[in-house]
Amino acid sequence: MKRQRLESTVIASAGYDPATALLELEFTSGDVYQYFAVPPSVHRALVHADSVGRFFATHIRNVYPARQVR
């Protein structure tokens, strides 16, 4: 999945597949997680958020099912 770089101290890049509603996040630690059933509006809001890390913590983490892939 192609990911776009984000300006964040927590999240390095984000990729999204609208066909499967899969959000893939690469953290600055190098860990990569996939989040399932994420609406396109949430992905758009994440990449345009003033604080990507804060948006992630509030609207994605512990909201959508996830698995670590790296």
Task: Report what the structure shows.
- This protein is α+β, with helices and mostly antiparallel strands and 70 residues long.
- It has one domain.
- Helices cover 24% and strands 31% of the residues.
- It has helices at residues 40-48, 52-59; strands spanning 4-5, 11-17, 22-27, 32-35, 66-68.
- Strands 1-2-3-4-5 form a five-stranded antiparallel β-sheet, with helices on one face.
- Helix 1 (40-48) runs antiparallel to helix 2 (52-59).
- The radius of gyration is 11 Å and the shape is globular.
- 20% of the residues are buried.
Keywords:
70 residues, alpha+beta, 2 helices, 5 strands
Short structural description:
This protein has two helices and five strands, in the order ββββααβ.
Oligomer class? single chain
The shape, in one word, is globular
Report the count of strand segments: 5
Supply the number of helical segments: 2
Distance between the termini: 14 Å
Mean pLDDT: 97
Tell me about the largest β-sheet.
5 strands, antiparallel
Strand-helix topology:
Layout: E1 4-5, E2 11-17, E3 22-27, E4 32-35, H1 40-48, H2 52-59, E5 66-68
Helix pairs in contact: 1-2
